């Protein structure tokens, strides 16, 4: 019985491994052709900041998207970068997240993360980035 208790206690204290393709449940949605974060979406950014504070061992990639039915590919690529950058700035400047823990990626309308409704693709998602592999933001 003592051995079983030791195993159970060890299992309870084990931290699950963070997988490279794991996404946070939080997203930030945007209005058509805009990259400003609305007051409705601000709590979603704050939730990411709170998650990162509670998990100081993780890094996150902020990935911006644009819907395929609005504008044209070159414009959507710039728009998705602006969306990801706006979220990055809010996380670092307003919520104090360490910039070294964040990376930026953006896909324009090349990838559509949501198939059910086109407008859901006006979004920023957050991907766990265990190695903080890449940065696309020009640091200033």
Describe the main β-sheet briefly.
4 strands, mixed
In whole angstroms, the N-to-C terminal distance is: 59 Å
How much helix, percentage-wise, in residues? Answer: 25-40%
Say how many strands there are. 4
Structural class based on helices, strands and sheet pairing = alpha+beta
Number of helices: 3
Give the strand content.
15-25%
Order of the strands making up the biggest sheet: 1-4-2-3
Report low-confidence residues grouped into runs of 5 or more. Answer: 9-20
Question: What is the helix/strand order?
Answer: HEHEHEE
Quaternary structure: single chain
Rg of Cα set: 18 Å
Task: Report the principal-axis shape.
Answer: globular
Overall pLDDT confidence: 85
Task: Explain what the structure shows.
- There is one protein chain.
- Helix 3 links the parallel strand 2 (60-64) and strand 3.
- The model is unreliable at 9-20 (pLDDT under 50).
- The chain has helices at residues 2-13, 42-54, 73-94; strands at 23-29, 60-64, 102-106, 123-128.
- The termini are far apart.
- With 140 residues, the protein is an alpha+beta fold.
State the gist of this model.
With 140 residues, the protein is an alpha+beta fold.
How are the elements arranged and paired?
Elements: H1 2-13, E1 23-29, H2 42-54, E2 60-64, H3 73-94, E3 102-106, E4 123-128
Give the tags.
single chain, 140 residues, alpha+beta, 3 helices, 4 strands
């Amino acid at each position: 019985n003592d051995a079983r208790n030791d195993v159970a206690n060890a299992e309870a204290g084990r931290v699950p491994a963070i997988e490279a393709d794991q996404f946070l449940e939080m997203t930030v949605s945007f209005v058509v052709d805009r990259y400003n974060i609305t007051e409705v979406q601000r709590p979603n950014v704050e939730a990411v900041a709170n998650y990162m504070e509670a998990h100081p061992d993780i890094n996150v990639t902020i990935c911006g998207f644009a819907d395929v039915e609005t504008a044209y590919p070159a414009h959507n690529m710039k728009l998705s970068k602006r969306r990801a950058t706006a979220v990055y700035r809010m996380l670092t400047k307003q919520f104090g997240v360490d910039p070294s823990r964040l990376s930026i990626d953006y896909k324009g309308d090349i990838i559509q993360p949501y198939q059910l409704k086109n407008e859901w693709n006006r979004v920023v998602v957050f991907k766990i980035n265990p190695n903080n592999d890449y940065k696309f933001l020009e640091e200033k």
